[in-house]
Amino acid sequence: MTIIQNLGLVPYEPTMQAMQAFTEQRTDDTPDEIWVCQHPPVFTQGLAGKADHVLFNPEGPDHIPVVQTNRGGQVTYHGPGQVVAYPLLDLRRRGYFVKEYVYRLEEAVIRTLMHVGVTGHRVAGAPGIYVRLSDPFAHAALSTPAHPDDPFRGLGKVAALGIKVSRHCTYHGVSLNVAMDLSPFQRINPCGYAGLATVDLASLGVQVDPWEIAAVLAAQLDARLAA
């Protein structure tokens, strides 16, 4: 059984501390959970994140904080109108490993986008989900490699992944841009890629309530991450 919790709009740091504490304190009998939420504006930096991907002075008089985390990946942005999901799972109990876990996370996002008619794509070596900017509703697969010199040409990133696995148990997770202020992404190299276009469903012409998408994403995660 997986417990799904909608936390609402919650500050990032206490949420990160809560899922870390949950993971540290859980036992073999602790039920898995999936937390869905939104966050007030915040930049988060991964363990291997490079400071030069933050294109402003974090010590300056900026109104959006930069928080160092223990997840994988580089810098990203969270803000209202973006749905964030944190699966707190025991992978050993579920019977699969991290590589498959990432694939299943991405598949849940792809299926969620299908709910609103958008086709999501994977890009090899770049975790997350991307859409074809010229026609986000087209079903044709991306050619491989489409542009060896620029794998993101013509694409926009709509969902980002950043996970942590401790003693076979997962936390952190995935964010999906629904209807948000995208301008803060211009102040970073999103996920470490300079010039990477970041989009949300609203900019693709899809008008949908973020909490509706949150419910769809939670259900897809519950199904796709099953043992």
The assigned structural class equals: alpha+beta
Mean residue pLDDT? 93
Number of domains: 1
Beta-strand portion reads 25-35%
Q: Look at the structure and name the CATH superfamily.
A: Bira Bifunctional Protein, Domain 2
Provide the CATH architecture. Answer: 2-Layer Sandwich
Q: Which spans of ≥5 residues are poorly predicted at pLDDT below 50?
A: none
The coarse overall form would be globular
CATH class: Alpha Beta
Q: Give the spatial strand order of the biggest sheet.
A: 1-2-6-10-9-8-7
SSE blueprint:
Blueprint: E1 2-9, H1 12-25, E2 32-38, E3 42-45, E4 66-68, E5 76-78, E6 82-88, H2 91-94, H3 98-114, E7 121-123, E8 126-132, E9 155-166, E10 169-177, H4 210-224
Parallel strand pairs: 1-2, 3-4
Antiparallel strand pairs: 2-6, 3-5, 6-10, 7-8, 8-9, 9-10
